[in-house]
Amino acid sequence: MSYKVGSKVVCVNADFSALIKEHPEFLDVFIQLPKESKVYTVRTTEIGAIRLEELVNSECEINLGGVEIWEEPAFDSRRFAPLLENRDELTESMLDDILIDEQEYEYFEIEVEEDFGPGIIWN
C-alpha cells in the first residue's frame, strides 16, 4: 500500500526478532522501533518504505548496487496499516487500491426450465 506524507498509520507488525537474529547490527541502525498498535504520522515515503515523524533514527551507510550513500533507513510499509477516521476514507482508500480496466461487458440471461429434484427448480 502506498501512503501519503502526513497520513496517519497504525503499526500492525512490530516483531523484528527474526530480522535481529539474522542481522544483529540492525539494532545499531534502528535505535527507535515502532510499537504494535501505536499510531504514527508518515514523514517521508519511498517505494515500499516509510519514515515516521515520531521515530527518527541516525543515518547510516547503505550500499545501493555498488553505490554507497548515507541515509536514514526506512521501515517496510507492510508493517503499517492506514488509520482511517471514517467510512468515506475507508471507501476512498479501497478504491485507490483497485485498478479497473475499462472494458465493455455483454450481459445475457439464461432461462432454464428443468426440475433438478425435490425443492430445486430452475426458472
Helical amount: 10-25%
Biggest beta-sheet profile = 5 strands, antiparallel
Strand proportion: 25-35%
**Distance, first to last CA:** 45 Å
Question: Concise description?
Answer:
With 123 residues, the protein is an alpha+beta fold. It has a domain of 76 residues.
3D structure, described in words:
The protein has 123 residues and is α+β, with helices and mostly antiparallel strands. It has a domain at 8-83. A five-stranded antiparallel sheet has the order 6-3-2-1-7, with no helix packed on it. Strands 4-5 form a two-stranded antiparallel sheet. A two-stranded antiparallel sheet has the order 8-9. It has three helices and nine strands. The protein has helices at residues 17-22, 26-29, 87-96, and strands at 8-11, 39-46, 49-52, 60-64, 67-71, 75-76, 80-82, 114-115, 121-122.
Topology:
Layout: E1 8-11, H1 17-22, H2 26-29, E2 39-46, E3 49-52, E4 60-64, E5 67-71, E6 75-76, E7 80-82, H3 87-96, E8 114-115, E9 121-122
Antiparallel strand pairs: 1-2, 1-7, 2-3, 3-6, 4-5, 8-9
Properties at a glance:
single chain, 123 residues, alpha+beta, 5-stranded antiparallel β-sheet, two-stranded antiparallel sheet, 9 strands, disordered C terminus
